[in-house]
Amino acid sequence: MNVLVIGYGNPLRADDGLGWHAASALARDPRLAAAVVLQRHQLTPELALDVAAASFVIFIDARVPTAGEPGRIQIDAVAAAPAPGTWTHHMTPEALLHLTRRLTGLVPPAVLVTAVAGVVEVSDQLSPAGRVALTGLVETVAGLARHRSGEPAGGADARVAREARR
Amino acid sequence: MTRIVTIDPVTRIEGHAKITIHLDRSGAVDQAYFHVTQFRGFERIAQGRPLHEMPSLMARICGICPVSHLVASAKACDEILAVEPPPAGAALRRLMNLAQVVQSNALSFFHLSAPDLLLGFDAPPQTRNIFGMAADPQLPGSFLAMDGIALRRFGQHVIELLGGKRIHPAWIVPGGVASPLSAATREEILAGIGEAIDATERALDWYLGRVAQWEAEAAVFGSFPSAFMALVTPDGLVEHYDGLLRVLDADGSMLADRIDARDYRSYLGEANESFTFLKSVYWKDRGYPAGMYRVGPLARVVVADRMGTTRADARLSAFRSRVGRVPQSSFAYHEARLIDTLHCLEAMTAVLGRDDICSPRVRAVAGINRLEGIGVSEAPRGTLLHHYRVDDDGIVQWVNLIIATGHNNLAMNAAVTQVAKAFVHGEDIPEGMLNRVEAVIRCYDPCLSCSTHAVGRMPLDVQLLAADGRLLDQLLR
Description:
The complex is a heterodimer of chains A (166) and B (477).
Chain A lengths: L2 E6 L9 H10 L8 E5 L6 H6 L3 E8 L9 E6 L14 H12 L5 E7 L11 H22 L5 H11 L1
Parallel strand pairs in A: 1-2, 1-3, 3-5
Antiparallel strand pairs in A: 4-5
Helix pairs in contact in A: 1-4
Chain B lengths: L2 E6 L8 E7 L5 E8 L5 H4 L8 H6 L6 H16 L5 H33 L10 H4 L6 H24 L8 E2 L2 E2 L5 H28 L4 H6 L6 E6 L11 E5 L5 E6 L4 H4 E4 L8 E4 L9 E2 L2 H7 L6 H14 L9 H20 L19 E8 L2 E9 L5 E7 L1 H4 L1 H15 L7 H13 L17 E5 L5 E6 L1
Parallel strand pairs in B: 6-11
Antiparallel strand pairs in B: 1-2, 1-15, 2-3, 4-5, 6-7, 7-8, 9-10, 12-13, 13-14, 15-16
Helix pairs in contact in B: 3-4, 4-6, 4-12, 6-7, 7-12, 10-12, 11-12, 14-15
């Protein structure tokens, strides 16, 4: 089971960088020793090749402060979908999966783990709520990765195949 | 009545710009202008900063080609320190710069320009991007998209392997590089070069198989005589890291050769215009604006006697057989960019094959020994110059930067005027004209701020204005 973790965000905008900071912590976490952890400022087309090589993908990002109580963590399944309208730097996990499927014919199952940001002003420090959220993000993703890594062979692969046939 | 057509913003370039097309009383195009509407001010920001901060600070100019700024800046710092990097340190700087040219050229050709070439200049802008290229796995666009993504990823990965991160690595430092190359990293990079070369060769074959269908565009895509300038080795081969400046005139004669970049002010003038924040650099002997010349991958393959690597030389020979030694059309930038990429990949193999490439001696250390330094390198888009003056404590007092897009500014303005004259007739604003005016700018792969580039963003606001400012027509996308 090849688990890929992509944490992204802007660490110069306080809690917007939660995914970036989480990837930094997870890359050193022995519980994810078997996973590939990538730390990025944003999603880019080049990541399609990493996604294609994975059997399960975990995206980590921050949600805007208006999305709820700061620090609240949410897990959502992500399905491949074309980028709405134009395509810019603001590439979404859905669009990245879509591009991966266009290029390779395969797309692994994926989830997006998010935490609501407390502050997204210019700062290289997380807010107090952000620091709490970071711990929660790391534990949540580590749990997901461990669960997926322990999954019997064929489970996720079968989902990949089913997705590819759509 | 005089009218003005405005294209704002210009898309799929690095940075923000707009184009205005000025019509004369008969409705014919009189002149077009390429406006760079953003101001960065790095030459002032750097004043008062310690010299050792300069490479990392200057790298922030650009998110696409930060390594070229690192190289030029570190070389200017070397001169102020009066040091020469150890051979392995210089070779590793060269290696990272080559990787950066690969990834940036891949972005320019595959991500930004290939959608126009593959899907057509008149294809809907919503699909004229790398997603549209990958729409059908059976079509050539799919392999082009895959190869482009893989090639860019390879170049970025090499930068990350060497410098610890893909953008703004603080690895190239005054005196050399911060850490030596491990044998494992050397092998990992070497293992990826073969596939990267294959991808580039596939793209060249694809391009050459279709180049005849773009003859109409090539005839008006900045097709005019001009000089070309780039770095070459003392033997006249293509050079990206060091070397001497060579300027070849439009008729193939040598305008200047073996110019030490430290003497750039004797040869290059810098002019400012009120309509743009981008300065225009010109060949002093010919004055402004007659001293127009071009830089970048097309200039590199034009001015050099040879590329100096086997595969790239074979491609260069075919290129010259087809378009001559000094082509006029800026459309030739596309093919030149791929040949340049091929050369960089071959050159990376050569650098990694050096016996001393894993030497632990990669950095020379010194204090302030001179008060002025000039560094030069070939950025993906052309020749890059950094010029610093410091005080006795190494505090930066004055900075002058000439980036590739400044060298190309006069040529880009001439190019958009030529395209506009070919496609704009009367009061209509044909959609195809807009696409082509933008596409000719993309030939030069301009780097306007590099940190605020817009990839594939297609909103356009084209305005037809009367001389008194009244809006006569508008096209929004």
